[in-house]
Amino acid sequence: MYDREEYIKQLEAIISKFLEPLKGIPYPIAIKALTGCEVLPFDLSNKENQNLLELLKTAAQIAGDEAYKQGIFTRRPNEAGNHLENLKVQVKHEFNASNKDLYKPEFLLARGKIK
Questions:
Q1: What is the crossing angle of helices 47-70 and 80-96, to 10°?
Q2: With contact defined as beta carbons under 8 Å apart, do 92 and 62 qualify?
Q3: d(CA 1, CA 24)
Q4: pLDDT tens, the chain, 115 aa long
Q5: What is the pTM of this model?
């Protein structure tokens, strides 16, 4: 009986460690371990990365402004992202009218979707 109780306590301790936030693990390693996907390096001293960051900031600002104008009404706060997804198509068309850079082949997946 004692062995079983000790075993259960050990399992509980191990499982509780899984639930603790990951600390001290570099972001790219955590993402690779959790998803199997690698994080692309992003060096802010690189001019192309600076340009991409400005494009992403602009797209986020457009989406935020549109969300503010339309309002997001939901019973549960975690559903707000679903409403923002609906703005994606609208913002995509407005944003890409003057920013074709995001549609260069290096930014597209094999299926033709934006990364």
A1: 120
A2: no
A3: 38
A4: 568 889 998 999 888 887 777 678 888 998 888 888 888 888 999 998 898 888 888 878 877 888 888 888 888 888 888 777 777 656 665 666 555 555 554 444 444 454 4
A5: 0.53
